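Ticket 4471: requesting a sanity check on a complex prediction with DQA. Repro inputs:
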Amino acid sequence: MRVLVIHGPSLNLLGGRQPEIYGTQTLAEIDAALLNEGENLGIEVRCAQRNGEGGIIELLHAARTEYDGVILNPGAYAHYSHAIADAIASIGVPVVEVHLSNIAGREPHRRTSVTAAACAGSISGFGADSYLLALRCVKKLGGK
Ligand code: DQA
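Returned structure tokens:
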């Protein structure tokens, strides 16, 4: 089974970016934990980060033929990108949305995710563990 992890805008700055909200782990550390958990679960994991909406959509389209599941942290795009939601709905590959922070308990503009509505499910509020939990969920969804 192959799973693509897509990190959205400004997640490349993790570690130093508002650590009181997003924690002190860097993106490289989160990716290493994902690869390690993937090995434990028998999943081949690839991680990518894009700051732009178009770049995220291109990766989702490519996942159509190359991956059995996707884990996506759309960052702030979660709250308004109908274009990413459409891409998720178009690819026929299960997508699990993750957020490091608990978006339901944050500022009003972060409490809605238009992209999560197009996903199989979402996990929010557990820091890097949100991603690791999502890996287990994608495995259960069983791929294409
Ligand atoms: C985030 C939550 C978003 O509201 C924010 O814009 C991010 C990170 C999270 O992982 O908690 O960039 O997606």
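Notes from triage: The chain has a mean pLDDT of 97. Leaving this open until the requester confirms.
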